[in-house]
Amino acid sequence: MSSSAPLPYKLIATDLDGTLLRHDETVSERTRQALAAATAAGAAHIVVTGRAVPWTRHILDALSYKGLAVCGQGGQVYHAGEHRLLTSVTLDRQLAGLALAKIEAEVGPLHLAASRDGLEGEVLVGPGYRVQEGPLPSVMLDDPGELWAAPLNKVYIQHPDLDDDALALAARQVAGDLVGVTVAGEGIVELLPLGLTKATGLSLAARRLGVTAKETLAFGDMPNDIPMFAWSARGVAMANAHDELKAVADELTASNEEDGVAVVLERLYLS
Asked: What's this model's pTM, rounded to 2 decimal places?
């Protein structure tokens, strides 16, 4: 990209899982170089993930990422260079309990997990909840009541029979006036503070960076990225993305395993 050419986008917002990260939780060298070229041209890169800070920090450190990151589905703005939480929104536990009661009255008993607030917030896993294999730490609980003992970012719900989309739909229908409901990944249906989305945190972070929505390019793969696409000037869905996100994307790129983020950035910033 020539030095005289206008910058295509001043802010590049990337989801992590299924987008920037490959299945082994690494970022390819090609994608690293494409991001480096974009930032060298003057763009800022910001990670926008559903993961809370404790599940994100090690990845940012491995990337030598020093800027702002939006974590916890938009509820946390984190300064990676300073290892400091700038903003944090917590879930009203009373409302969440009421929402769960309404959902269970509709679909039957749920399996639960929850993410505690803060830089060191643990992910607590209740009986029956299926945890995906991987390096992310979690604490198994025998007493589901312990889930509610301290402030939370979110509650995860699973149903023994319903798939993610059906469970999320049922939850929205009966409790959508109490909590936000989003599908963040396979087997990951989340209850959030009402109105909170990735766009909430991204808009706060962009304001701190002096960048507007019209100057933002976003990459994602799941329905929880839909508000971020709506906020940004352009939304790019990965080839492996959920159909709901593909339906609202401005562009489709290659999968996360095939450097889909790099494909777009190379075209915009290296041509």
From this structure: 0.93
